[in-house]
Amino acid sequence: MDGIDRAGFRKLLADRLPDDVVELDPDIVDAYSRDESEFLEPGRPWALIRPRTTQEVATAVSVCAEFGVHVVPRGAGSGVAGGAVAGDGSVVICLMRMNRVLEIDTRNLLAVVEPGVLNADLCEAVRAHGLWYPPDPASREICSIGGNVATNAGGLCCVKYGVTREYVLGLEVVLADGSVVELGRRTVKGVAGYDLTALFVGSEGTLGIVTRVTVRLRPQPPAAVTLTAFFDSLRAAGEAISAISTRTTPSMLELMDRTTIRAVDDWKRMDLDTGAAALVLAQSDVGGESGAVQLDLMAGAARDAGATYVATTDDPDEGEQLLAARRLAYPSLDRLGTATMGDLCVPLGAVAEAVSAIEDRARRHGVVVGTFGHAGDGNLHPTIVFDPGAPESVRAAHAAYDAMSEAALELGGTVTGEHGIGLLKRGHLAREVGADVLDLHSRVKDALDPAGILNPGKVFGRP
Ligand SMILES: Cc1cc2nc3c(=O)[nH]c(=O)nc-3n(C[C@H](O)[C@H](O)[C@H](O)COP(=O)(O)OP(=O)(O)OC[C@H]3O[C@@H](n4cnc5c(N)ncnc54)[C@H](O)[C@@H]3O)c2cc1C
After folding, report:
1. What is the per-residue pLDDT across 213-260, written as a single tens digit (0 to 9) for each?
2. CB-based burial of residue 185 (10 Å sphere; 0-12 exposed, 13-18 middle, 19+ buried)?
3. For ligand 1, is residue 29 a contact (CB within 6 Å)?
4. What is the DSSP string of 366-413?
5. Architecture of domain 101-219 in CATH?
6. Which CATH code, of 3.40.462.10, 3.30.70.2190, 3.30.70.360, 3.40.120.10, is assigned to 225-410?
7. Lower CB count within 10 Å: N or C terminus of the chain?
């Protein structure tokens, strides 16, 4: 950030914002400069802003705009693509103090929340009213609604209920010049003008800072019934996933491979079949007799695909325990070394081929990979375990990651199903969308942030 009057900038921030909102202590500021991604070295940001109000966000952004200082919006820092990794001389604006559920409208099935509300806390708040906010990332206890909006987060229920974008009705956004706009609506339908709300969802902090979100809610569904099926090959598990998806309407359809099953069981002793090549977990939440029928159909599909063991339960607590195994997949692999989580998504019919391709690329590059994910969406998280202290291991992890992304594209898929591009996958985005569409991204960015101060270098950008 050459040529910027750092002292003048800091003074103006301090003059315009309350003392406890501006943090300049480098140790504290540095602690907010990274997220959960691997491979990336953050820079040294100049300041951390922890606003309590939209006005404070707007003030901070307008001071940054005046001095040409880069702004890195940040939620809970659970992102795995480097979207919240801060560069030298930037300012991190962390939204986690804006954490109030402002309204739960039971009649119109919506809630209005500040961006720092944790996903799990929103679910808890609306559950008290018999309502439900479906998008449920496996990280729901540690990620914010603002971060979910900015990454268009997915999760375990998305196979039936869709991703964050489908639940965002309206947004309040602070733009790159510090002005504040209201986008969207409170109605179920609405097509007035361009869908700018949808444009901001998934924009990874590059177009504006989300300071309020109006989300759609649904009634709580009936308790889910759960299928567990083990397989002696990933290909058979992939076939079961295709069959379950085409014969039934699962509310969850997840996969864990052998490495992941063993990592979870070694850690939590859950009595999983550690000799199996894959575990498929599926649920139906239609309830009553229809739920039992769905479960039978799922079990039949798993057996037809060659499952070595199939069990079903209508006990919600047992179902929740099985889901817990799935939610522990990433932290369990992370205990084996340092884990970096991929996020490939392929057409449903290509899940079996994708898992074979992942295994093949892991073998070719000599890396340990555990694959799990929302397989009912075709969304797989091949997670490479490596040793960050060994350059050869880091090189192999990078090469395997690239090769797996390439394989997903060859299968007609995408390099990210739900985590976003951030800093990590910029090259992959270029490969996926091509130069003309990349240029279109640039033109949208230039229109909304001509000075390029919002989260520069993320997604597609010029650093
Ligand atoms: C164990 C684990 C499991 C995970 N499972 C899932 C999963 O199942 N599904 C899934 O989708 N993701 C998953 N993730 C990834 C992560 O939790 C999500 O990407 C989440 O949406 C990030 O939210 P956050 O609050 O932590 O955002 P951050 O990590 O703080 O930020 C993420 C991005 O959003 C931007 N941002 C944050 N807040 C705002 C705001 N208010 N306005 C504008 N931009 C903003 C940041 O600049 C950054 O680009 C997982 C991560 C971990 C570690």
Report:
1. 999 999 999 999 999 999 999 889 989 999 999 999 999 999 999 999
2. middle
3. no
4. T-EEEEEEEGGGTEEEEEEEE-TT-HHHHHHHHHHHHHHHHHHHHTT-
5. 2-Layer Sandwich (3.30)
6. 3.40.462.10
7. C
Indicate if ligand 1 lies below 6 Å from the C-beta of 38: no
State what percent of residues in the chain have pLDDT above 70.
99
Cα 286 to ligand 1 centroid, rounded to whole Å: 30
Helices 234-247 and 351-365: crossing angle in degrees, nearest 10, is 160
- Return the CATH number of 6-94, one of 2.170.190.11, 2.40.128.630, 3.40.1740.10, 3.30.43.10: 3.30.43.10
pLDDT, tens digit, for every residue of 367-387?
A: 999 999 999 999 999 999 999
Q: Which of 72, 80, 158 to mutate to test the pocket of ligand 1 (most atoms within 8 A of CB)?
A: 80
* Percentage above 90 pLDDT, the chain: 93
Distance between Cα 376 and ligand 1 center (Å): 21
Atom 13, ligand 1: residue with shortest CA distance: 137
- C-alpha 359/C-alpha 340 separation (Å) is 16
Supply angle C-alpha 13, 78, 40, rounded to 5: 80
Q: Which residues pair with 181 in a beta bridge?
A: 173
Domain assignments of the chain as residue spans, ordered by start: 6-94, 101-219, 225-410, 425-463
Task: Retrieve residue 176's tokens.
Answer: 């790159």
pLDDT at 2 over 70: no
Query: Is residue 210 within 6 Å of ligand 1 at its C-beta?
Result: yes
Q: How far apart are CA 137 and CA 420, in angstroms?
A: 13
Strands 379-386 and 368-374: antiparallel
Instruction: State the distance from the centre of ligand 1 to the C-alpha of 178, rounded, in angstroms.
Output: 23
